[in-house]
């Protein structure tokens, strides 16, 4: 017997999430149908509709209600930290030890998985680098994060700005989003020039 169309539709919608396979989507859909009240469903649906108002900052890729995010609008543009995704921005902001702006790549280069440099938000970094004094590369200390850092270093080698790599006190594979405030502050303080 097949699922009713309503459930199949929900499974299909949930499968849109990166990292959620058909089995997990099925489990989540059944959980929603059997455990959620109508209020829960209304709240979820309206939360989802509200995010339609959000945009990506034209300069850095942050999530914002405006064309340019509050960080880009209020801070000096001469120090740019390159990060993998929006989550990292919020982790770093929580630490309150960085006063520059960001550039969000939306991923890292992963040749094996078919994620090429042109799939990332890299091109606009070239324009931004022309006006920056320092580019701090804060991709995670994974193999892909290192490959991406090297790629950026090469890409910007002819520009005047300094390029530094954040000094991780984290083991290889340790992600930025799990680092505590002190570790992040130290990683930033101990960044080394790689150009
Ligand atoms: Zn921005």
Pick out its properties.
single chain, 195 residues, alpha/beta, Helicase, Ruva Protein, domain 3, Dna Topoisomerase Vi A Subunit, Chain: A, domain 2, 2 domains, 5-stranded mixed β-sheet, 43% helix, binds zinc ion
Give a description of the structure.
This protein is of the alpha/beta class and 195 residues long. The chain folds into two domains: 5-53, RecR Domain 1 (Helicase, Ruva Protein, domain 3); 55-193, Dna Topoisomerase Vi A Subunit, Chain: A, domain 2 (3-Layer(aba) Sandwich). It is 43% helix and 12% strand. It is built from eight helices and seven strands. It has helices spanning 5-14, 22-35, 38-50, 70-74, 86-95, 123-131, 143-155, 181-189; strands spanning 55-56, 63-64, 79-83, 101-104, 134-137, 162-165, 192-193. The strands form two sheets. The chain has a five-stranded mixed β-sheet. A two-stranded antiparallel ribbon has the order 1-2. Strand 5, helix 7 (143-155) and strand 6 (162-165) form a beta-alpha-beta unit. Helix 1 (5-14) crosses helix 2 (22-35) and helix 5 (86-95) packs across helix 8 (181-189). The protein binds zinc ion (ZN). Zinc ion (ZN) is lined by residues 57, 59-60, 62, 68-69, 71-72. Zinc ion binds next to helix 4.
């Amino acid at each position: 017997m097949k699922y009713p169309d309503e459930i199949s539709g929900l499974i299909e919608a949930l499968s849109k999430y990166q990292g959620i396979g058909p089995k997990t989507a099925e489990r989540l859909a059944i959980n929603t149908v059997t455990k959620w009240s109508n209020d829960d469903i209304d709240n979820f649906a309206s939360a989802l509709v509200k995010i339609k108002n959000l945009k990506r900052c034209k300069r850095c890729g942050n999530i914002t209600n405006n064309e340019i995010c509050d960080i880009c609008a209020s801070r000096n543009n001469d120090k740019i930290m390159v990060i993998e995704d929006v989550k990292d921005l919020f982790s770093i902001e929580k630490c309150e030890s960085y006063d520059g702006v960001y550039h969000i790549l939306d991923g890292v280069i992963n040749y094996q998985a078919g994620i090429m440099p042109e799939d990332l938000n890299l091109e606009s970094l070239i324009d931004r680098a022309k006006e920056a004094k320092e580019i701090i590369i804060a991709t995670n200390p994974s193999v892909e994060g290192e490959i991406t850092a090297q790629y950026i270093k090469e890409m910007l080698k002819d520009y005047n700005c300094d390029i530094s790599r954040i000094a991780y006190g984290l083991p290889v594979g340790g992600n930025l989003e799990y680092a505590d405030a002190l570790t992040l502050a130290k990683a930033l303080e101990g960044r080394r020039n790689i150009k």
